[in-house]
């Protein structure tokens, strides 16, 4: 019989912090009596996540787990009810809608005994407070990427989850898509030799958006890096462990928007492997331009390379090219057309089986972990979430980019 995971959804609504946006760089914070920006509506990503939960798992060849949305919490019961009504309408289903309990506060949601796991899809600025509150209330948590805004907050939440003996995972959906499993299988097979470098780019043009948009607003922890910069997931996952991963060397260049958040980031990363080898990573992410459709992410080895087709966040295909001898690969790369690859294969994937957006696979992972009494995912271990925040902290340090103090602190507002 399939294991059922009962979900509680945190539906973003107004909050006191969201009403204190600045007029612009260097300007004083506004008072709640004179708001400039409207608080965000219930998020797009939370809506798509729930739509995926409502999809029939069999359409993606999943039979061992299933999902049930049992509760939604917002800052008013009316807002929670509107969220449920709109999502079920968009899904084109009625079954189960009347069974969803709507809560008029997040604390009520966290106290709901019928909930197995809380999904947090609020703005980055609120992840730390929301996840901390859910864990403190004894709830397992799946939190959208990025987990928080800095490494200190990530470490605090990881320690809290372990102290409470609860499950916690960062929702890096790319890591759970079928292409990702196959990609890492191919890398580990050795068909391209030892990995020498990884190159990834994800840029999206948000220049038409106003300064209140979440990617441009510093008080929502805006910027391209936290939202688009999780390229480290192209690397094979490490094992789940409480031991920290070594932080790579970072050399970064950061350009900022007029609101002070990062607009464009180019970073070089040097990873030291357990056998002493060094692997280079190149990360490009930006919100002022679009990645060209013919751009690929690359994984280069000593005997070949892999092209991962656009878009980076949900690739539809990848192709590997391998040579028997490293010198033949080098000769081909230098222009010798006679040194053709001795092995090559393209793998294509149905990016949206059953009409899902792609979040269902990470939800399936959570359900399996809870079924098996695991406190973290072996596929997306907590130490990788901590590592990514350490890398991002260093990129921001080099770019002289900090968020408002109330977002960077460990103190709860």
UniProtKB/TrEMBL annotation:
Residues 60-169 form the Gfo/Idh/MocA-like oxidoreductase N-terminal domain. InterPro entries: Gfo/Idh/MocA-like_OxRdtase_N, Gfo/Idh/MocA_domain, GFO_IDH_MocA-like_dom, NAD(P)-bd_dom_sf. Keywords: Oxidoreductase. It catalyses: D-xylose + NADP(+) = D-xylono-1,5-lactone + NADPH + H(+). The keyword Zinc does not apply. GO terms for molecular function: D-xylose 1-dehydrogenase (NADP+) activity; nucleotide binding. Residues 182-307 form the GFO/IDH/MocA-like oxidoreductase domain. Its EC number is 1.1.1.179. Coiled coil: none annotated. Pfam families: GFO_IDH_MocA, GFO_IDH_MocA_C3. Gene3D superfamilies: Dihydrodipicolinate Reductase, domain 2, NAD(P)-binding Rossmann-like Domain. Belongs to the Gfo/Idh/MocA family. This is D-xylose 1-dehydrogenase (NADP(+), D-xylono-1,5-lactone-forming). It comes from Rhodotorula diobovata.
